[in-house]
Amino acid sequence: AKRSGRNRWAWFDQSMERELKARNDLEGGLRSAIPRGEIVPYFEQQVDLASGRLEGFEVLARWQHPTRGLITPDQFIPIAEETGMIADLSMTLMRQAFAGARDWNSDLTISVNISPWQLRDAWLAQKVIKLLTETGFPADRLEIEITESALFENLALAQSILGSLKNQGVGIVLDDFGTGYSSLAHLRALPFDRIKIDRSFIASMNENQDSAALVNTIARMGDSLNLPVTAEGVEDKALEERLREIGVARAQGWTYGKPLSITGVRRMLAERRML
Ligand code: C2E
Ligand code: CA
Ligand code: CA
Ligand code: CA
């Protein structure tokens, strides 16, 4: 027994070592990927459920790796957060997104994810506003998405940052509502314009009565607080129809197609005569 125990440890060490090396490689790679412009924005359509109209896009980070192809954010955003690289990553991503979306005229919005880590930066609002000025993207077409966990650390600072952005016309979205530390107090303490229901609730709506009831409750809460609700992870038309009946304002998800690159969005808008 002792012997197999030791073998198991040897195996464990090796796999830990491999994992550690993979992580270190990724971290090193990410450090140079950011200045090289390998982190690029992809755009996921957000649709108004009542009219079916395209309202805008959520910006999602992708790493265009020279040998590994397109890497999704779950593999590098946590590393970027732990190492502080998220600040630079987010700025390069926003710069590209603002510049790319600037001349998709009409009134399409773009919605960017801001990580909890960035809400510790007292200059965040000024940095975002500067980027808007430099790229010529209008503040009132920008929304920022923040998860609730981000708001616990320093509520006063979050209030000040979000207040400054909102004063410029930037919309503030409470992301992943219903997961983590849901607190109704936050809904009053912070200047939200919109609530986003996490994909986990939407995905289970068809099988799970409780999920459907919860989505309905969040939609009614949104009504009474005057906060439009977005549902994410809408994968098919049946779900879309149920959400429309419930009175959810906006939806996004694969039923509208997978996230597109800047070029992909341009092509799609051109086809729909929306450029
Ligand atoms: P999120 O903000 O909750 O974004 C929604 C995620 O759900 C995206 O994954 C999107 O591609 C995926 N998704 C959308 N529709 C569907 C659907 O119909 N079915 C399924 N199964 N999935 C769908 P993605 O792009 O992998 O992003 C994962 C998470 O990474 C995001 O979750 C967000 O928290 C984070 N993230 C992405 N970009 C950024 C960024 O620029 N900054 C920060 N801080 N976080 C980011
Ligand atoms: Ca989001
Ligand atoms: Ca999220
Ligand atoms: Ca989510």
From TrEMBL:
<protein>
    <submittedName>
        <fullName>EAL domain-containing protein</fullName>
    </submittedName>
</protein>
<keyword id="KW-0812">Transmembrane</keyword>
<keyword id="KW-1133">Transmembrane helix</keyword>
<feature type="domain" description="EAL">
    <location>
        <begin position="23"/>
        <end position="273"/>
    </location>
</feature>
<keyword id="KW-0472">Membrane</keyword>
